[in-house]
């Protein structure tokens, strides 16, 4: 080190290493700030799309259009619930699926008076990248049960159970409604979404007519803890 | 909500579509929207004029991240109770600038309705019945005021 440099360093109380680490620190803070700004924009935009859908649903005269918009709004809402949960945990790369289901169930709880949602959830962390797909899958199954298993004010209970064993997670959604024989046409689209998403998640979906009701079991691989 | 004395609500949000949606939710919850502001000076002026019971306030307004200061002003000088509705939790100070609580975007219409209902009841009765609804995070001061016991 030359004498001149030493004097400089001494004058501001910093070694060149301190200066570099200060620059790095600043760059890191800037990046973190950008990430937070991006997170904030995504959440705001989700809110905007949600409001637009509701706005149009309210203005729609045709019942079929209204129903379609409301169903899309529910799907968007499931993704919004995921985003609400992101960046809230210690590890931003992991996502707690049990926390998501609790939040979603609270959302859907009022949707069908007379039908209760009971939860029995083991916390299972999964990669954030898979969260939206799994959220949509669970949303379809839960809404399918709430909407189609209890026609004409029938009362009952939908049980959601999440367990983990080794490298597999199992999500059970069990209703005590009218059963599979009563499945109807408009369920088709939702169930094809279930089919597509389960392929993406490498999940197996098993349907069982349980008399009473339908039990659905979704089994999918999760990484080891 | 009490039909004779509906909760009077000021909406402070710079996204017009969101403000419009909030207004609809306020109305259909049995409360009464008394105005909409997009900047902090507008918010404070409107709050002075209309003396709302409750102000729903975003952190980011048309004039920048000014929602926090506007909230403090409305709480301390306009007699309003503030509820933040924001995607920007990190920008909020620990005491929530005197606000009663915060809801995170993206919220659902159910959450807003339940929160309005809960707050209206707390204001009427001076205390909460049970836990706040899903999505509503109360400030420590208001949790104490409304005697909400944090669930273990």
Structural notes for this entry:
The complex is a heterodimer of chains A (225) and B (152). Chain A is globular, with a radius of gyration of 24 Å. Chain A has a 5-stranded mixed β-sheet with strand order 2-4-5-7-6, covered by helices on one side. In chain A, strands 1-3 form a two-stranded antiparallel ribbon. Chain A is built from 6 helices and 7 strands. In chain A, strand 4 (156-165) and strand 5 (168-174) form a beta hairpin. Chain A is α+β, with helices and mostly antiparallel strands. Chain A has a domain at 92-221: 2-Layer Sandwich (Heat Shock Protein 90), CATH 3.30.565.10. In chain A, 55% of the residues lie in helices and 20% in strands. Chain B contains 5 helices and 6 strands; from the N terminus they run βαβαβαββαβα. The longest helix of chain B is centred in the last third of the chain and has 17 residues, at 109-125. By secondary structure, chain B is α/β, with parallel strands linked by helices. Chain B has a single domain, classed as Rossmann fold (3-Layer(aba) Sandwich), CATH 3.40.50.2300. Chains A and B meet through helix 2, helix 3 and helix 4 of A and helix 1 and helix 4 of B.
Secondary structure: elements and pairs:
The complex is a heterodimer of chains A (225) and B (152).
Chain A (H helix, E strand, L loop, with lengths): L2 H9 L4 H44 L3 H23 L8 E3 H12 L6 E7 L3 E3 H21 L7 E10 L2 E7 L12 H15 L2 E6 L4 E8 L4
Parallel strand pairs in A: 2-4
Antiparallel strand pairs in A: 1-3, 4-5, 5-7, 6-7
Helix pairs in contact in A: 2-3, 3-4, 3-5, 4-5, 5-6
Chain B lengths: L7 E5 L3 H13 L3 E6 L2 H11 L3 E4 L9 H11 L3 E6 L14 E4 L4 H17 L10 E3 L1 H6 L7
Parallel strand pairs in B: 1-2, 1-3, 3-4, 4-5
Antiparallel strand pairs in B: 5-6
């Amino acid at each position: 080190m030359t004498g001149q440099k030493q004097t400089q360093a001494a004058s501001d109380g910093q070694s060149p290493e301190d200066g570099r680490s200060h620059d790095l620190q600043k760059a890191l803070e800037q990046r973190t700030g950008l990430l937070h700004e991006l997170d904030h924009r995504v959440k705001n935009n989700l809110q905007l799309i949600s409001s637009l859908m509701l706005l149009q649903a309210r203005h729609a005269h045709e019942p079929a259009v209204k129903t379609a918009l409301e169903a899309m709004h529910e799907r968007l809402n499931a993704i919004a619930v995921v985003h609400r949960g992101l960046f809230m945990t210690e590890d931003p790369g992991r996502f707690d699926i049990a926390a998501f289901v609790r939040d979603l169930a609270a959302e859907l709880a009022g949707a069908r008076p007379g039908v209760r949602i009971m939860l029995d959830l083991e916390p299972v962390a999964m990669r954030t990248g898979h969260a939206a797909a799994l959220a949509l899958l669970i949303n379809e199954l839960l809404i399918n049960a709430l909407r189609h298993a209890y026609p004409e004010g029938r009362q009952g209970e939908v049980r959601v159970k999440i367990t983990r064993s080794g490298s597999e997670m199992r999500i059970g959604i069990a209703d005590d409604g009218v059963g599979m024989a009563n499945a109807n046409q408009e369920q088709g689209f939702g169930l094809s979404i279930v089919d597509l998403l389960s392929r993406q998640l490498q999940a197996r979906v098993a349907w069982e007519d349980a008399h009473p009701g339908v039990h659905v079991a979704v089994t999918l691989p999760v990484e080891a803890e | 909500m009490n039909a004779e004395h509906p909760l009077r609500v000021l909406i402070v949000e710079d996204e017009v579509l969101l403000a419009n949606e909030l207004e609809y939710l306020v109305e259909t919850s049995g409360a009464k929207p008394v105005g909409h502001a997009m900047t902090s000076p507008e918010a404070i002026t409107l709050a002075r004029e209309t003396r709302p019971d409750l102000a729903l306030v975003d952190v980011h307004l048309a004039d920048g991240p000014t929602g926090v200061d506007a909230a403090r002003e409305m709480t301390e000088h306009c007699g309003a109770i503030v509820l933040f509705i924001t995607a920007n939790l990190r920008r909020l100070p620990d005491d929530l600038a005197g606000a009663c609580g915060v809801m995170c975007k993206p919220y659902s219409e159910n959450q807003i309705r339940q929160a309005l209902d809960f707050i209206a009841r707390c204001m009427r009765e001076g205390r909460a019945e049970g836990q706040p609804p899903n999505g509503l995070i109360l400030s420590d001061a208001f949790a104490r005021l409304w005697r909400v016991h944090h669930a273990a």
